[in-house]
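3.2 Worked example (two chains)
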Amino acid sequence: MDPIDRLTRDLRVAARQLGDDEARYLVDAYYIMQDDRKRTYSQTVALGEAGEPNDVIGWLNAQSRTLENQIKSALDAYTNAHKMGSWMRSVHGIGPVLSAGLLAHIYMGYWCANCRAHGKEQCEEKQKAAKTETHEYVKVISCPTVGHIWAFAGIAGDGQAKWEKGQKRPYNAKLKTLCWKIGQSFMKQSGDEACVYGRFWRQRKDREISKNEAGDFEGIAAARVATVGKGTEARKTL
């Protein structure tokens, strides 16, 4: 069977100029392929333990890993071409895929206050395409505070807008998932002293455990217990 074509030098150069939409698509594709590859590997192991043939599924697993790595190489070039991408990758626990996701989802610059178009030209194009109502282009900074990023990612805590029934989701679901993946990365590498945010996670976890054992969360637990199903582990915990 023919091997998957690898990323050529020309494509690596082109990857440096990826648009936000294309970068977001590649990040999504990477994680979908990663999940599929893990399932394929589990199937290969299960068949091997049962003494069943698994050569073709094993080949599929190898091909999936190759394609996954090629997407990672493209995102590696994309993030290296950005100052913020290079900085993010200097943080222990953040690689090219997570960096690319943040770069592609978070717009730092000026946009239209009415339609959030990135510049007057894009604002006019959106109105011509009837994607928004007619309005004047009002130039404002996209993220005047870090809280705006937290709210967009759905992790603003008490300041997060609630998603009311029938209303548009007030945050970016994919960015929220990406932030969760970043948290998992820091958590898994928290034993490495080079992982600064992993150390913060350990400190916060120890603090939360101490407060919980002291009964400080009794009121919160009592208020939340009715929101989970009977017989669930969550209800037992609360």
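3.2.1 Second chain
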Amino acid sequence: MSQRPTTLAIVVAIPTSWTSEQALAVFELLDDLRDKIWAIHGDQIQALLQQEQGSTASIVHRVDPSSDDRSF
């Protein structure tokens, strides 16, 4: 019996023809979705990220949507 791969790469094509307004709308949608998922599953997500990364402080800062650090 063959094993399933442990990772899956998904390629998402982002249209280069979007207007700035369309790009912002998609960005805001994804940001809101992230906040809602975090509100429901944040503790479990944080625990999984800690297992993967092994660094509690950097993970909490990096993924906590309540943080105002959105400099990207």
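3.3 Remarks
Residues 42-72 form one domain.
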